[in-house]
Amino acid sequence: MIIWTFIQKSIVQGIGILFGSIGEIVTEKSGNLNLGIPGLMYMGGIAGLLGAFFYESASGNPIPFVGMIISLLAALLCSALGALIFSFLTITLRANQNVVGLALTTFGIGFGNFFGGSISKLAGGVGQVSVAKTASAYQAVIPGLSKIPVIGKILFSYGFLTYFAIILAFLVAFFLLKTRAGLNLRAVGENPGAADAAGININKYKYIATVAGGAIAGLGGLYFVMEYLGGTWTNNGFGDRGWLAVALVIFSLWDSRKAILGSFLFGALYILYMYIPGLSRSIQELFKMSQYLVTIVVLVITSMHNKKENQSPEALGIPYFREDR
Fold first, then answer.
1. Are 49 and 71 contacting, i.e. CB atoms less than 8 angstroms apart?
2. Which of 302, 310, 22, 318 has the alpha carbon at shortest distance from 175?
3. Is 322 helix (H, G, I), strand (E, B) or coil?
4. 185-226 confidence digits (pLDDT tens)
5. What are 14-37's pLDDT values in tens digits?
6. What is the number of other CB atoms lying within 10 angstroms of the CB of residue 252?
7. 105 CB contacts (<8 Å, ≥6 apart)?
8. Is the pTM of this model over 0.90?
9. Are 10 and 268 in contact (CB under 8 A)?
10. How far apart are CA 194 and CA 234, in angstroms?
11. Percent of the chain residues topping a pLDDT of 70
């Protein structure tokens, strides 16, 4: 039935967004606002593809699992490096977070498109680059279970990154709510002055959270390139998924567990117009912006209720200077 296909495709669309959202939640809990998430997703995607491409090119008989490890490490390192640069500029040099974040997004997209085009030429022409063997490791489904009628397609027809994203969302929520380090991180985002007075190293927590959040976001780009596209690259192929990840942070009220269902909803809204026949181009564009409209509605409703747990970290986007304490 088409409804089961729609649900499955919605989950597929949402996972990349979920990775970006989890990464930004971790970052924002420290009080940093990183609008460079879209760029970091591009950097993670192209770095993973480059790592797999050079491995497969250098190996006469590439092993998919080895290519997967290399591409995974490349994606994590590249996106973490981008987030580290963001941290240095905004925490150490005290540059404006919004400006640096937007610059990082512009750089990341350009970085991805430049090397995506370059690697295509190395492979013999635009559009011919493919790391199908490495991608096969990402796309491998659970044996047997994926063949179960209906349930198999909805629950067990995905690669390991899909399940890792869901598990990671729960782990991040547990870390933030149940561990001492997580509580310290939340304190840094809410009231850095009080946290500093309590002996918490503000810059340390901000650096670690921002770099870790950037690395997680990079996995969203890797997922899109390897599991979704099957190991190929398309310039500007991510569309607005990076910005949807940022919007999902607000929609989920800074709770990574809520972001799971939110990502599936965003994924459904992202492709809904494809399943409704007879829509004009203008109506299709309205469907494409529906995720942002839903986010605005949620933001308005939560603002009216004014519950502390549903609001952003109090010191979000505000640089901390110990001298001003």
1. yes
2. 22
3. helix
4. 999 999 999 999 999 999 999 999 999 999 999 999 999 999
5. 999 999 999 999 999 999 999 999
6. 23
7. 35, 36, 37, 38, 39, 242
8. yes
9. yes
10. 47
11. 94
